[in-house]
């Protein structure tokens, strides 16, 4: 007699390419943190002609020497990770990008001469055709004050960029040199939080009569900041959430609802994080326990902290 197929297959897995618990948790935590930081005002609006605290302006873009493009095609802001979300639950809203200014004139993405798109994660404007690198290019936008990464999106050989808020730096507009010479995809700007699910997981039976389990998965939040004050604030923020229950969305079924396309450009009518939780619900996860496992001052300009959180998830 042939064995039942139930005894020849994995539990809780239907396809080899699907995102399972650990990947689901990391992706959900990044999306949650991005949204939650915006909800407490964790963004700055770069408007014309607002200046930085030390001079210079955040709306002024710089030419980028990227070997994948012609010089003059790619322009970036001092801070990457531009805000694409709308409807934030805060007293003010992030600036919605309406176009790019060239020599003081505003041009939309579909302009016949200056057609372009935006790469929100890298904080770039990419023109369809190169323009003069001597042009004055400006963009009203918002950037995140705290950048959140999943561990494999921020490999440790990437370079930490210091002073990314110092738009008075004389090298800001110099392509290929100065503090911004490393391309945006290899720069981690501080303050930053890196989310890493680690190999520490325990189980407890859920109920009698089935194979359901409580899964206790540890996640490290690595915090990097240029000031002790910001490091401490982020450590407090992430560690003072015990017994908080979060909803998760299903990364596998939400594949058609990614808010950014392959270029990093916002899609038409992107689905916001709260709507993902409703449209593609996955599981609930609870902050079960938090431990501040490390606080270190590497130098007068680099402050680190690590918060270890155990998350409780029911898997049936």
Could you characterize the architecture of this molecule?
The protein has a domain at 5-39 and 192-315. Helix content is 12%, strand content 33%. The chain has helices at residues 21-38, 228-239, 273-279, and strands spanning 43-46, 62-63, 74-76, 100-102, 105-107, 116-119, 124-127, 137-139, 141-144, 147-150, 159-161, 187-189, 192-205, 213-225, 245-249, 281-299, 302-315. The mean pLDDT is 85.
SSE order and pairing:
Blueprint: H1 21-38, E1 43-46, E2 62-63, E3 74-76, E4 100-102, E5 105-107, E6 116-119, E7 124-127, E8 137-139, E9 141-144, E10 147-150, E11 159-161, E12 187-189, E13 192-205, E14 213-225, H2 228-239, E15 245-249, H3 273-279, E16 281-299, E17 302-315
Parallel strand pairs: 10-13, 11-12
Antiparallel strand pairs: 1-9, 2-3, 3-7, 4-5, 4-8, 6-7, 13-14, 14-17, 15-16, 16-17
| Low-pLDDT segments | none
Q: Into which percentage range does the β-strand content fall?
A: 25-35%
**How many beta strands in the DSSP annotation?**
17
Number of helical segments with 4 or more residues:
3
How much helicity do the residues have? 10-25%
Please outline the major beta sheet. Answer: 6 strands, mixed
What Rg is obtained from the alpha carbons, in whole angstroms?
22 Å
């Amino acid at each position: 007699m042939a064995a039942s197929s139930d005894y020849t297959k994995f539990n809780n897995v239907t396809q080899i390419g699907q995102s399972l618990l650990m990947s689901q948790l990391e992706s959900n935590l990044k999306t949650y943190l991005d949204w939650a930081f915006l909800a407490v005002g964790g963004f700055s609006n770069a408007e014309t002609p607002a200046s930085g605290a030390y001079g210079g302006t955040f709306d002024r873009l710089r030419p980028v020497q990227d070997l994948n493009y012609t010089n003059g095609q790619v322009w970036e802001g001092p801070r990457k990770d531009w805000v694409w979300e709308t409807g934030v639950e805060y007293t003010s809203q992030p600036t919605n990008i309406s176009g790019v200014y060239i020599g003081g004139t505003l041009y939309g993405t579909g302009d016949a001469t200056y057609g372009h798109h935006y790469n929100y994660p890298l904080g770039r404007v990419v023109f369809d055709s190169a323009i003069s690198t001597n042009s004055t290019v400006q963009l009203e936008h918002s950037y995140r004050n705290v950048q959140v990464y999943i561990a494999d999106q921020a490999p440790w050989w990437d370079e930490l960029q210091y002073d990314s808020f110092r738009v008075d730096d004389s090298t800001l507009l110099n392509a290929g040199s100065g503090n911004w010479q490393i391309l945006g995809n290899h720069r981690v700007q501080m303050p930053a939080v890196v989310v890493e699910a680690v190999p520490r997981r325990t189980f407890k039976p859920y109920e009698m009569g089935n194979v359901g389990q409580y899964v206790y998965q540890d996640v490290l939040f690595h915090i990097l900041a240029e000031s002790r004050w910001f490091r401490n604030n982020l450590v407090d923020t992430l560690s003072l959430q015990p017994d908080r229950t979060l909803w998760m969305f299903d990364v596998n079924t939400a594949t058609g609802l990614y808010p950014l396309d392959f270029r990093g450009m916002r899609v038409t009518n992107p689905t916001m994080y709260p709507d993902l939780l409703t449209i593609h619900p996955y599981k609930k996860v609870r902050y079960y326990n938090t431990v501040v496992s490390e606080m270190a001052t590497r130098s007068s300009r680099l402050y680190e902290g690590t918060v270890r959180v155990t998350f409780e998830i029911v898997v049936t």
